[in-house]
Amino acid sequence: MASKKGIAITIIILGAITxxxxxxxxxxxxxxTTFIVTDYESYLDGAKSIHEVLAQSTEIEYQKLLxxxxxxxxxxxxxxxxxxxxxxxxxxxxxxxxxxQWQESYINYMDAMKKFNLxxxxxxxxxxxxxxxxxxxxxxxxxxxxxxxxxxxxxxxRLSDQSRP
Length: 165
What we know:
Blueprint: H1 4-26, H2 40-66, H3 72-96, H4 100-131, H5 136-162
Helix pairs in contact: 2-3, 2-4, 3-4, 4-5
């Protein structure tokens, strides 16, 4: 049989856990996350380097898809990872709050990453068309859209570079 002292201690511990859990759920959680940047040029250079690596790896995987070296499913998995990383980079840009003189450059680069993410999404569409043996017209239209999004992303990067203070 359990002692009265052991039962009392167990009840107190359970009460404390329940009370603490209740407080955690009831206290308002309105903490808006802000990514603080102090060296805006270095941050933008770092983001650009990450983006270049993602673009190069995507281009390599995309070419492997077109050459039949990897399956559409393998490409889609790789593209999903890239898209997640790009989305994270975009989120950091949104919360970085650059000063006025850097805003145009940051906005252009963020837009470039959004276009790049659309590009990655369209390459996944193409992978799906290849896997499901889509029509030649669908494949051609999707390929053209991919090239357009890639060019738009590169143009926005150029604009970002030109608008740096």
